[in-house]
């Protein structure tokens, strides 16, 4: 597609939020050796996208300006590099793009073969674009606590905070597939919705019981997938069983220090900072679950690329119910 241009949304500097996004016409990129050129059908936003724009991951991300953000996409293969073995033009796929290159907020994007998987016709572009960061993090978090997805897990009590969010709504469904009893927290408006995802009991985080994280049925938790911020260890601790693991998916330096101290002192209740390490086999597993109707994507809202700033603002606001999607 040499010489062809495309519509893309990018930013030129740190900060600026939604107002910092610019609509531009730039050349369609060409795939190199192990790369795939996609016509993007849908892209999903994650908090990390605007955190990179804010400069929270500097000096590593973005590697340079201008930067076309967003990593999670679904689309159609248009062209492949000479080393690509498993895909051909016309294939429908889901991909997690490189954090270093971004590129998802555009009509065409470059994906690596190693994090691209086939998308079955039963699964829509929007519900699949939503999967990579959010569902992979939920799956990795649950696996970190020892939950297995091969039918061999014995029942455990799991607490999922911010269960109405991008990661949390997948964590609830996956924890149930892993044979867990799920206690979830969310705002009052989403209590019934989170129950419909499979949560056994739901706490409104703005009530005293919700703030204390106490299970309505008196259960102690074996694991916590902690998908929000601002909750101290002292709040978790009285609600935990002896060998519980609290997986913090928004770790800070304090999380790292506290986690290390607990390991050094042989504390039984562990705090585990998690950074996503995406794996193709996990993406394939998640897409298969969507195909079988066992994993649903809650879509907060869909926005056309021409109004990408509305999607950006919605994600930054921190109150999305499920995933914010941009359609091309
Ligand atoms: N470590 C990693 O690799 C990794 C990967 C993915 C995400 N993350 C991080 O994980 C966090 C969550 O990501 P996300 O995509 O799930 O975010 P999100 O979709 O933006 O989460 C929004 C949801 O959180 C709920 N919420 C906010 N505060 C809450 C509280 N105190 N208790 C219960 N629910 C609360 C909101 O409900 P209301 O509207 O009712 O307030 C809303 O539904 C972000 O900080 C993100 O950067 C890390």
Automatic annotation (TrEMBL):
InterPro entries: ADH-like_N, Chloroplast_QOR, ER, GroES-like_sf, NAD(P)-bd_dom_sf. SUPFAM superfamilies: GroES-like (SSF50129), NAD(P)-binding Rossmann-fold domains (SSF51735). One of its GO terms (molecular function) is oxidoreductase activity. This is Enoyl reductase (ER) domain-containing protein. It comes from Dioscorea zingiberensis. CDD domains: MDR1. SMART domains: PKS_ER. Residues 16-326 form the Enoyl reductase (ER) domain. It comes from the Eukaryota. It holds the Pfam family ADH_zinc_N_2. Signal peptide: none annotated.
